[in-house]
Specification:
Helix content: 25-40%
InterPro entries: DUF8199, HYC_CC_PP
Strand content: 15-25%
Strand order of the largest sheet: 2-1-3
Shape: elongated
Largest sheet: 3 strands, antiparallel
Number of strands: 3
Structural class: alpha+beta
Length: 133
């Protein structure tokens, strides 16, 4: 019971670790002067009202800042041919012994499987006064 719960928990943690190590996202921040106006993770950050006025005046006090958190792009996948000879031999021997190492037991025929003993009418030991001491 405890072993299966630990196994399921450990595999879930490893799956989440692989998922979160490959996810990439961008954090966008909009500053108006030195004041942080908006922060957005998945969508574009909202602009302040000063930005519309700056387009007319061509003077800029607003700035956008992008922080990109990159996940892992490639997961290393190795094939059987990439392994050196000793590793290939070990892997082959391990799989061969695991697949062919377990033999099923021969099913023995039990001749008295369906035999029911006769019902005792009297206790013979008490009748003959024979007791094991």
């Amino acid at each position: 019971m405890l072993k299966s719960i630990l196994h399921k928990g450990f595999t879930s943690i490893l799956a989440l670790l692989v998922l979160f190590s490959t996810v990439s996202f961008t954090i966008e921040k909009h500053f108006c002067g030195d004041v942080l106006v908006d922060v957005s993770v998945f969508a574009e950050a909202e602009k302040c009202a000063m930005e519309a006025l700056e387009l007319l005046q061509k003077k800029t006090c607003c700035k956008d800042e992008l922080n990109v958190v990159k996940g892992q792009d490639e997961l290393s996948v190795t094939s059987f041919d990439d392994l050196d000879l000793e590793q290939q031999q070990f892997l082959y021997a391990f799989t061969h012994s695991y697949v062919f190492g377990f033999e099923s037991l021969v099913k023995h025929k039990i001749p008295h499987k369906n035999y029911t003993p006769p019902k005792l009418v009297t206790d013979i030991q008490v009748l003959d006064q024979v007791f094991i001491i």
